[in-house]
Amino acid sequence: MNQAPRILSIAGSDSSGGAGIQADIKTITLLGGYAMTAITAITAQNTKGVTDVTTLSAQMVAAQIDACVSDIGVDAVKIGMLGSAEIAGVVADRLDGLGVPVIFDPVMVSTAGSVLADAATIAAFERLMGLACLTTPNFDELAALGGDAALAAKGIAYIAKGGDAPGEVVEDRLVLPGQEPVVWTAPRVDTRHTHGTGCTLSSAIATFLGQGAPLVEAIEDARDFVRAALLAAPGFGEGHGPMGHHAVR
């Protein structure tokens, strides 16, 4: 049997298809995984921003996770937008002891600047970071979580993404407890079509881990996929446009 790794994405829906659940499904599928979803929120958004959000109940999110895990099974999990502190809590309950790699993208603000997590939700992130084998904050998210010192003190494994930091060179820095950081650098891709980069990176890492790759190798391959998708952006929208997942082979 040609069994694909079973990847569960727990995240919000992006109506414009560039980020969230939609970006995750594209990424997981193109990389050879079997995509499953537990949708946390429905958003009305496009390349210019988010205009409306409806958060699902924590019970519905838990039911989606239970339905997938109890029948299909799961080899890795990606967590994105959560929508509420209650959802963060039930997600942690369901994943605790599951025994598969968990990648946590601590989504707080959309690429276009819309707030997607309140203070109570961000406070609930700590338990999920402890459960995850990797947390993937961008420049601003890392600061909101207390910075390098705070995460290091808690023994959190994380990759500090540099795509939102200033400069012509993007630096991504992997920090694992008790180890020297691993640093990747690359010239910045000059484009406004960056919607969904964080979602894509985290779901790609989860997919590669589900296939059995070591963490560093999974990150390297995921970074390559994101860069290729950035370079293949179709140019849609007037704001922060989507990447070209479809064109990456």
Automatic annotation (TrEMBL):
Keywords: Kinase, Transferase. Residues 14-243 form the Pyridoxamine kinase/Phosphomethylpyrimidine kinase domain. SUPFAM superfamilies: Ribokinase-like. InterPro entries: HMP/HMP-P_kinase_dom (IPR004399), PM/HMP-P_kinase-1 (IPR013749), Ribokinase-like (IPR029056). The keyword Cell membrane does not apply. It is an enzyme of class 2 (transferase). This is hydroxymethylpyrimidine kinase. It comes from Novosphingobium resinovorum.
